[in-house]
Specification:
Layout lengths: L2 E4 L3 H12 L6 E3 L6 E5 L8 E5 L10 E4 L10 H7 L5 E5 L5 H5 L7 E15 L2 E12 L3 H10 L4 E4 L3 H22 L9 H20 L6 H13 L7 H8 L9 H11 L4 H13 L7
Parallel strand pairs: 1-2, 1-5, 3-8, 5-6, 6-7, 8-9
Antiparallel strand pairs: 3-4, 7-8
Helix pairs in contact: 5-6, 5-7, 5-8, 5-10, 6-7, 6-9, 6-10, 9-10
This protein binds NADPH dihydro-nicotinamide-adenine-dinucleotide phosphate and ketopantoate (KPL).
The site of ketopantoate has 8 residues, from α5.
Length: 294
């Protein structure tokens, strides 16, 4: 099985780590800057071991699996890699947050199979090829033959859950991101900020709106999902950040369109009022590098 990962950040590092544990052999990594190895600290389950894993340079021919791990706003810029790596039989696995993976990637890969994957894990890129794996080793995807093969590819490294209702699963993950990612990015504080009582109430308001927006487009979310997400925030270690927090701290653009923007757009389609989420969207857009004046 040939595997090429596009991107050299946190989720790319997780994939390299999981595939090495799965015995998948060295995988190729395609970055904006060439990389020869990853150093992974931790295992997402409390372990603190440090592993160095060598990776292969970008292949010059199509591969069986392309794992796309760039931020949503960088997806279009990967077109040259996709042209090089995708051929008949390639499955393009999109490991991103959000709810519209297929719409974003399918136009770049003609009729190749696109498999959306929700990454139920937390990791931080701390330097070039250096990734700290804090929480989790679960991937959630659709229920189909490609997903079954993905499960076999990662077996021994990460668990792949095939969910018959991926729309609801993606909105459930969006709940986690719309509060946790946006608030940590806006405040410049890690997960401990989510336990400030007034911030917790703000999160409850955003999550309640998000659940309503999700329901308006067919996701089966209830108040129990809101409560479950708040309990998840309570369980985070104080030093857990979020992918949007790391981008804010590094002066990179934010995924404001992928996360609160997706809620606002769905709410508009569904005729749902989401004033608090709209405010969060405006603020994350305003602080995102490159958005000045937009
Ligand atoms: N980090 C986390 O814990 C989690 C993240 N996610 C989601 O996963 C996705 C990836 O996030 P994450 O790994 O954190 O992001 P990172 O910012 O850590 O990594 C993104 C990588 O993509 C690279 N990249 C951008 N454009 C290109 C390109 N054209 N060609 C090659 N590489 C490119 C970046 O390069 P450069 O180094 O040059 O910037 C960077 O290495 C996001 O949608 C995020 O929301 C989901 C769950 C958990
Ligand atoms: C780890 C988690 C759930 C944090 O909100 C995430 O998805 C992210 O950082 O993007």
């Amino acid at each position: 099985m040939s595997v090429a990962i596009i991107g050299t950040g946190a989720v790319a590092g997780l994939c390299v780590s999981w595939l090495e544990r799965a015995g998948a052999g060295p995988v190729a990594v395609c970055g904006r800057t060439p990389l020869e190895r990853f150093t992974i600290t931790g295992d997402g389950a409390g372990g603190t071991d440090v592993r160095t894993i060598a990776v292969l340079p970008p292949p010059d021919a199509p591969v069986d699996w392309v794992l796309l791990t760039v931020k949503a706003q960088d997806t279009a810029s990967t077109a040259p890699w996709l042209d090089q790596l995708v051929g008949p039989g390639t499955v393009v696995v999109v490991l991103q947050n959000g709810v519209d993976h297929v719409e974003r990637v399918q136009p770049l890969v003609a009729d190749a199979e696109v498999l959306p994957v929700l990454v139920m894990a937390a990791a931080e890129r701390t330097g070039p090829g250096a990734v700290t794996h804090r929480i989790g080793s679960l991937l959630v995807t659709a229920q189909n033959p490609a997903a079954q093969r993905l499960s076999e590819l990662f077996d021994g490294g990460a668990t792949v859950h095939q969910d018959p209702d991926l729309l609801t699963a993606a909105w459930r993950k969006l709940l986690v991101n719309v509060g946790g990612n946006c608030i940590t990015a806006l405040t410049g504080r890690r997960a401990e900020v989510l336990r400030v009582p007034e911030v917790r109430e703000l999160c409850r308001a955003v999550l309640t709106e998000t659940a309503a927006a999700g329901r308006s487009v067919g996701a089966l979310l209830t108040d129990a999902d809101v409560d479950g997400t708040l309990r998840l925030y309570d369980s985070y270690p104080d030093d857990n950040g979020s992918s949007m927090y790391y981008d804010r701290m590094s002066g990179r653009p934010l995924e404001h369109e992928l996360i609160p923007g997706a809620v606002v757009r769905a709410a508009e389609r569904g005729g749902v009022d989401v004033p608090v989420t709209r405010a969060i969207w405006a603020l994350t857009k305003a602080v995102s590098v490159g958005s000045a004046g937009a």
